[in-house]
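Folds abound. A case:
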Amino acid sequence: MNNWIIYFLITTGTFIFMEGVAWFTHKFIMHGLLWVLHKDHHQKKPHFFEKNDFFFLIFATPSILLFFFGAREGFNWLFYIGLGILLYGIAYFMIHDVVIHQRFKWFSRSNNKYIKTIKRAHKMHHKHLDRHDGESFGMLFAARKYWQQSQKKQA
C-alpha cells in the first residue's frame, strides 16, 4: 500500500477519534476538574474572549508537538496524527465558534439539516448553566434523538 494512503487513513482516523476525545474531555474534564475554565462558556452573556478559550491551547499543544517530531523524522506517522488533530480543531472551531455561537458572523443562516441538528444538540447542552446534569457533550456528531427532533421541526 502506498504511504499516502496510510497517511490519509491515519489522518482520517485521528480526526474521527478526536470526536471521542472531545466528548470525553468535555464531559469529564471541562465539566469536572477544569470547570473553572469552562464555566464562563455557560453564562448567558459571555464576553468575546472567555477563559474557555484556553482549551484551544490545551488541544493545540499535542498537535504542535506531533508536527514537530513527525517532521523531524521525514514526515512520519506522528506528523499525520498531528494533522488529524489540527483538522478536527479547525472543524470544531468552524462549527462551535462560527456556526453555533456566531462569534464571527460568517455563516449566520442555514437551512442545512446537519447544521440545524448540531445547533439543537448544542442548545440542549447550554440549557444547563452549571456543571452537572449536562447532555450532548460531542460536537461534530449529534445523537439520533437530535436528528429526529430536527426532522419533526421541519415537518
Remarks:
- The mean pLDDT is 80.
- DSSP finds six helices and no strands in the chain.
- The two ends are 47 Å apart (CA to CA).
- The longest helix spans residues 3-33.
